[in-house]
């Protein structure tokens, strides 16, 4: 990424001018001829040299470090969007945003509940199934909640032999590597926070396979993949899994659709009918939440 000195200079000046001294706990003082904070006040708040900040506003500075950008974002009272804009103008990738955690937002939950003709799930970036619609539950099975990682798809893949039976044996190694490479990317994005570190430590204790693949240090975010699921009632179902990211990077919506011009739509319709019979007596639950 390249630094855009002219736009960065303009953004810093405009952000400084939008602030009043009272906004940052400074007295208004007298005889202010320009709106907003003085440059010297920003440098004191950010803990940086006045000369360097002046050069930033004059579009003639070297690229600032991420530590300096973080200090400027705090000094200028930027919100998350403003902070990210500052980083991008300076030629740096913005830091990770706030995490949604295990709480699925109302709009995302409503969207999941409205999807009835194709399997869909909401997953955390570490692989925890946070919610799924009825068709996904029928296709992939329920979510175990009796252990810490019982709803985690990576944990179940490496610890529950029954999970693998739903996939062709010749593809097991492929899926193992996909799971580990995607998890590696998520752990790095999280800067190895407590939840990520604990999951990897537990997975390394499951046996040789995970440890061997983890030490390959392969990275690959699963944005769109093709898969085959072996269902005991409707048989083999080919699907395309597409991941739709949410503004919170730690949650994503996964939608499983038949490949274009395939015959598998009829199998999903049959599965939906079977699922309707399985799920009730009474209205079929639209969404299953993993507590």
Automatic annotation (TrEMBL):
GO terms for molecular function: DNA binding. Residues 11-83 form the HTH cro/C1-type domain. SMART domains: HTH_XRE (SM00530). InterPro entries: Cro/C1-type_HTH (IPR001387), Lambda_DNA-bd_dom_sf (IPR010982), MLTR_LBD (IPR041413). This is Helix-turn-helix domain-containing protein. It comes from Yinghuangia soli. The lineage of its organism: Bacteria, Bacillati, Actinomycetota, Actinomycetes, Kitasatosporales.
